[in-house]
Design brief:
eight-stranded mixed sheet; OB fold (Dihydrolipoamide Acetyltransferase, E2P); metal-binding; ligase; about 30% helix; 15 helices; magnesium ion binding; alpha+beta; 3 domains; BirA Bifunctional Protein, domain 2; ATP binding
Length: about 500
């Protein structure tokens, strides 16, 4: 049987909780609290000339500081917009002889982290701070755990953030309370998603939902998470991509579909990889990968402007320009430029020899496409800081992509590289069902060799293609990596509210 142990401060807070209850104060009231104003709006809009408009306000938030001046308290609360100061005077809060509310609640019951609501009027203190002259105060929720200690300047801005990753990622709720910059990151994340959604909706795209539980994990080369469906008594997989379902919708007659999908890949974790991540994919009938490059430039230029107010975005010590057009480089040219090797005519053994010469670790399960991918990832990827389309991949790397219209052995595919990482992957989609079956069969051979990331054969998808799919272009964006760029965050864990972590041992 587990037992809960408390720190000295936690014990004191629980004692205060009990005393509040004994004094008849409900520390967790159920009733609606009629908030009428928010901190930043008050501070931005209040003037002496329009003070009549702020003669009665109702605000609520979390206590972030308490300055006890005896019969006067200066309390700063934090709401969704920021901090605002409350001026709380004993004889105005308790104008009669009975001062028990002051003693029980304000003087001895409040702690940092508690939620309170107040009514009163707005004024400017002698020190020039816009504040609320409190007339009523209500305890809305008692905090039983002390907030982590951070340092703030006179304006209340944090200048000594808690940066311990174990704390930040595991206790994101506390991180959000004390680090305003973290909240700003996630506000920008939502702004980015809304910007993209606005772009697509205005172009006539249809937002859809596709299955997360799939009987075949298709649409990407990745190792899936496996589960079991008890009612059907069959194995299922968490999706690694939503591509094949979205293409089924193109077969069904929709011309442009998109989905922000949560995908899952049972692979390693580092600063740009999390097992659970967000992808935006969209598919458009009657288009090709050249059109998709131009559309990608337009979408990202708009997103940067909407989120950052500029197309020149600071990332670490660099400035990345999202202004169209972006550079285009073939993958073979990129490898030749950065390794000195022309791999365009090499077979699998030749590629293995190149990898050995470049000290790139490979194993026997890897086929030709995977070997080329390893060379590019190890020796080329990091060089592409400004947005660059790496185009025209070998057919072995792209089992879902249409063969190039004029370059034998290649396919019409691009990956968008920014700041040395892949941000998007796009094709002119393969819509020949016979050739698609052959490509799947080649992938099945790699599975037999032990490549856990090779694709399964999706017979239902092949059946859908046999009904006919129009010429189509599709793309997948790594939303988390794009957020990293536009918020200047070094790790994917910094742009995920609750990144995966090893389970915590709690007693």
């Amino acid at each position: 049987m587990s037992t809960q142990s408390f720190s000295e401060q936690e014990k004191i807070r629980r004692e205060k909780l009990q005393k509040l209850k004994e004094a008849g104060v409900d520390p967790y009231p159920a009733a609606l609290y009629p908030v009428s104003h928010f901190s930043a709006d008050i501070k931005d809009q209040f003037t002496e000339e329009n003070k009549a408009a702020f003669a009665q306000v109702c605000v609520a938030g979390r206590i972030m500081s308490i300055n006890d001046k005896g019969k006067v308290f200066f309390i700063k609360i934090q709401d969704k917009q920021g901090l605002i100061q409350l001026y709380v005077k004993r004889d105005e809060l308790c104008p009669g002889e009975d001062k028990s509310f002051w003693d029980n609640v304000v003087k001895h019951g409040l702690d940092l982290g508690d939620f309170i609501g107040v009514t009163g009027f707005v004024f400017i203190t002698k020190t020039g701070e816009t504040s609320i002259h409190t007339q009523t105060l209500t305890l809305l929720a008692k905090s039983l755990k002390p907030l982590p200690v951070v340092k703030r300047d006179e304006e209340g801005n944090v200048f000594d953030e808690v940066t311990d990753p174990e704390f930040k990622y595991r206790q994101r709720y506390a991180d959000l309370i004390i680090n305003p910059a973290v909240r700003e990151t996630f506000l920008k994340r939502t702004l980015l998603v809304n910007s993209i959604r606005d772009f697509l909706n205005k172009e006539g795209a249809l937002e859809v939902d596709t299955p997360v539980l799939q009987s075949i994990p298709g649409g990407a080369a990745a190792r899936p998470f496996k589960t079991h469906h008890n009612a059907l008594d069959v194995p299922f997989y968490l999706r690694i991509a939503n591509e094949l379902y979205l293409k089924r919708l193109i077969v069904g007659g929709f011309d442009w579909v998109y989905e922000f999908s949560r995908n899952f890949r049972n692979e390693g974790m580092d600063r740009t990889h999390n097992p659970e991540f967000t992808i935006l994919e969209f598919y458009v009938a009657y288009k090709d990968y050249y059109w998709m490059m131009e559309t990608t430039e337009q979408l990202l230029e708009k997103a940067a402007q909407d989120v950052c107010g500029t197309t020149d975005v600071p990332v670490s010590d660099k400035t990345i320009s999202f202004k169209a057009p972006f550079q285009r480089v073939s993958i073979y040219d990129a490898i030749k430029e950065h390794t000195g090797h022309d791999v365009s005519t090499l077979d699998e053994e030749g590629l293995r020899a190149v990898c050995a010469g470049l000290n790139i670790h490979v194993d026997k399960t890897m086929g030709k496409g995977k070997l080329i991918d390893e060379i590019f990832g190890a020796k080329c990827e990091a060089h592409y800081i400004q947005p660059t389309f790496i185009i025209d991949y070998p057919v072995e790397m792209s089992p879902l992509t249409k063969k190039h219209r004029s370059k034998p052995g290649l396919v019409e595919r691009f990956e968008l590289m920014i700041n040395g990482k892949e941000i998007a992957n796009a094709y002119s989609e393969l819509n020949d069902p016979i050739e698609q079956r052959e490509r799947f069969e080649e992938q099945a051979k790699l599975l037999e060799r032990g490549d856990e990331e090779a694709m399964y054969i999706d017979y239902d998808f092949l059946r859908a293609l046999e009904y006919g799919m129009p010429p189509t272009s599709g793309i997948g964006f790594g939303v988390d990596r794009l957020v990293m760029l536009l918020t200047n965050q070094p790790s994917i864990q910094d742009v995920l509210l609750f990144p995966q972590m090893r389970p915590e041992k709690l007693s």
